[in-house]
Amino acid sequence: MEFGLSQEQVLLQDSITRYLKDQVPLDKVRAVAEDPGLDQSVWHGLTELGLAGLIIPEAHGGVGLGLLEAVVVGETLGYHVTPGPFLSTAVIAPSLLIAAGQTDRLADIAAGRYRVGVALSEAVGARLDAGMTVSDGRLTGKALFALDASADAYIVNGPNRQLYWVDAKDPGFTRALLTTIDKTRTLCELKLDQVDATLLTDDPAVLQAGLDAGRIVQASDSLGAAQCMLDQAVAYAGQREQFNRVIASFQAVKHLCAEMASQLEPCRALIWYGGHALSEGDGSARLTVCHAKAHLSEVAQFVARTSTEVHGGMGFTDLVGLHYWFKRIGANRQLLGSPEGLREEAARIQMLVA
Fold it and tell me: What domain range includes position 36?
């Protein structure tokens, strides 16, 4: 049996592709990289397409689709290196709220009235001087690498893997934009000083559900970005001439492009299956997600490097713009778990290590 996308999923992918080609060209991405606040216009357009409520049930104003559809959308957004908070607001935050049974905020998210950031990095890897303490329903502490520096509220990982909802307008809440290699999405450092916080859940399984959803969609984003870099390399090789011949006719260049394609193509089925397993509640889903993101992180990095090499000196210029995809892939590699950390997590799931 061949696993493939349904007609509806293909139509979803095509409609978003048409929108992004028309409304989010590379010049728009450049503008957002210079002024991150401009991503609001991009997100507004995607919200009108229903992406903010993609996995939110119809009963709460959403589209009611699953994580496989989120994976399909994530691949398309990655292909066009689309700015915006899709990963945090449309994927991780709804996954956490649904798993926690906290559905009263979903309608606002689906309608685009709320951008919700997530601060879960301490659950993946603790950092010096970071972390939260809670006292009388108030959070104090610091969270690094929170997704979306323009969010209206955040879901924050508390002590013992608890999850709290905090409002960005609280007087004790401050945030600082972090400088990262990826200018298409914003990360920030949160500092909380006796901030009113609403406990969403103290069940560690809810946090894991959010991480799994974020990781598989992030892997699909890297897949789309890598596919675009491969397509650009093939197109460039077909028109760039040396010694009165296009460089695509040179065996060495053919080998580079063939190696990129051969490594990338099997990843698509791996990502699709990861999204399908999460949607269906498959017991192997978490293990699949760990391997999928770890593998895509390395394959996409190889494609990014090799595609740049095929472009030669032009690959490093802003005129071509390859660096936006290159940096997106680099950021995805580390966020929510590095390949090494995810493989260690997979080993623990299989009880191969203590």
Answer: 7-110
